[in-house]
């Protein structure tokens, strides 16, 4: 055989071997794409342990805010195999849109209900894997330096003593915050719930862009308290003693869940990851301090840690009435639109007007003036009145087509009309409150001047 031909043949065969090996490698290591809102310190232990258990699979995590991830999946703007997040209503939206695959139950030993909430979707399209505690992140030095107590309940955040000391995220940008907003609306009722959120709005120092911005702001001392989920309470890169997490008396425990998307490119790999997360090994990873979550499997807890104080024995905020994730999903965007228009976009106005209401209410103490009291009451009522009634909010078919509109894109005409109506109603409420406050201040000032004149006229 001529030597040049032999050399060429050798090169060709070598290329074939390399291409074949690369093909086998592609077949051996298959990617599982996971769309998730969880932070890197949560994900890394799972990635390492899963790689050891399944070297033929690799996890590719794509991090998104829950609200963005849901919009991308529903709009088919992002391809993934798994959705992994905390907020149950986000999963309900995806289920309603037909984006979740049916799953088989895994043997975890978890009860059907924890703190009054179902661990798994009754239709088995998403499965609970961990418990999320919703409460308050606070800066102990900040509160102590200002003589402020740690809030004991959710409605405490509306107390005047916390004016200027609270930070929140917007529910339209945070699935965590959306769940807390919806929980209060369901537990306290539509009208009273919005009243509580309006008063909390009057106490806000800021509205952050994302959930972790709340704990970071608390850690830096920008404000002292904020609603948070347990695993975001200690922001990465901050001193550990700069924040603490408190579960209020009305503790809110719900399962964080995992689901396989119905168009998963790697369905087998996705199922294997679900198996791993719900296995004893995967559940035990949740107790890693870097992860710091509550497993749904009682068997992985150290002896004695699933007794008093655990979510398995503790009443939650939902124990007052089971949280309806389907209701939350059906009016998800409606609640976001109202919250942003009523609170997020009007924070500075709310702060100023609630300061006036509280000052006038303090001035009324010990004073008998029915007309002044009515003016102040009218202002309070206008500030707390939602732009839609409770019965109208329950007309769920009307809200099913509302969407999260990306910046720069046009809003669908029916939604634009609804948003304009909501804005106009809230504008009217704010103007009514402003007039009542101005009249009350004028009346109080006149009464004080008359009292001063009478005092001066005394011999």
TrEMBL record:
Keywords on record: Signal
Cross-referenced Pfam families: SBP_bac_6 (PF13343)
GO cellular component term, pick one: outer membrane-bounded periplasmic space
Name this protein carries in UniProt: ABC-type Fe3+ transport system substrate-binding protein
Organism: Microvirga subterranea
